[in-house]
Sequence to fold (438 residues):
Amino acid sequence: MPSAVSLLPVLEKLLTATLACSPTTGPTFTGLRCKECGHAYEASARHVCEDVCFGPLEVVYDYEAIRARVSRATIEAGPASIWRYRDFLPIQGDPIDVGTGFTPLLKANNLARRLGLKNLFIKNDGVNMPTLSFKDRVVSVALTRARELGFTTVSCASTGNLANSTAAIAAHAGLECCVFIPSDLELGKVLGTLIYNPTLMAVKGNYDQVNRLCSEVANTFGWGFVNINLRPYYSEGSKTLGYEVIEQLGWQLPDHIVAPLASGSLFTKIRKGFDEFIKVGLVDDKAVRFSGAQAEGCSPIAQAFAAGRDFITPVKPNTIAKSIAIGNPADGPYAIDIANRTGGSIAAVGDADIVEGIKLLAETEGVFTETAGGTTIAVLKKLVEEGKIDSNETTVAYITGNGLKTTEAVADAIGAPFTIEAQLDSFKAAWQQAQAQH
Ligand SMILES: *Cc1c(COP(=O)(O)O)cnc(C)c1O
Ligand SMILES: [Zn+2]
Fold:
């Protein structure tokens, strides 16, 4: 079997050749660029500015080409998945299509009334395909790109959902898969990975330790790590959460968004998605406030925001919101900058509030989210109470994962069924008791 590493130079040459041609059908991305110093790199598997400043790399697009090719009508005629936005994504050929994206945007009237808002929407990625979290977006893009770059083995450092997604989509694409998680994850996340039969490494340590180990493995084994050496491509998948909300609001921007922060990538890429649609003329520019949500037990970005710092002091995670428990968030400074520049805020809530947030969303809107979504709803509530979200603002809360994966978090907080005999009398007695309780 030829190793992925030895194939790379050939593929890079091919890529450069293809990128040079075809204004209407070829790829619209032109390479990578350092987010800090602007130094250009070819579109290979790399994520840091090794030549100059060690800043993060980002995908660069030819927006004139996109503008010439794309309209509201062409997008609306596309598939009901993230691939309707493929000209904004860093892929060359056919996507790995597992139906990811175009999840519901619910008008949340009951929750809005409860919180004192008038125009609240829930973007529900808890029903994303194939593994019920927003990670399906980033992995669909990363593995498509991994395949194009010639990788045959793919991997990731995960807080749970990423492992589910990488294992599932790798299975569909026929790629070898080895994923790494902290060993203390919820059963649903572990089982929801193993079922796809990857090699699963449960590392005795927290996410930040898992991530450090994976950087070494990436250097030694030449695998495609979706959130390490493929990170510039991976993170672009999150932009689709921005595009979809614009389209689902009838080609308009919201006034305020609230989203959870782990590494901060999702948050910054929603902003990039909005900016790109403005830039190519798909939506009118308007101020949008960006607010972020963290769990108190792992809130390095919220702490820096509160202290008016633009740098992150790493923390050791200790929270039930494991999927967003990253103690040393790579995109933290960019997230703080966006919140500051847009007049938003970044806040943290405790584990008890997170459980209340999960229950509140379920009881009012029929949406069962995991701990990250509970964090988002609890922060939304807190920001309204503190007057940081105006009742008239069109507000979108991003729900990023499904509650059936983190049942441990709520098991003790939701009561129990009435166990009865299969007889009418037994039911009547229980019903009376139930009435008294409600
Ligand atoms: C990964 C994840 C996030 C946020 O991730 P970022 O690293 O900030 O992009 C949010 N919610 C859930 C459920 C996740 O799994
Ligand atoms: Zn640089």
In short: The CA atoms of residues 293 and 376 lie 5 Å apart. The first helix runs from residue 4 to 19. The longest strand covers residues 176-182. The chain has a mean pLDDT of 94.
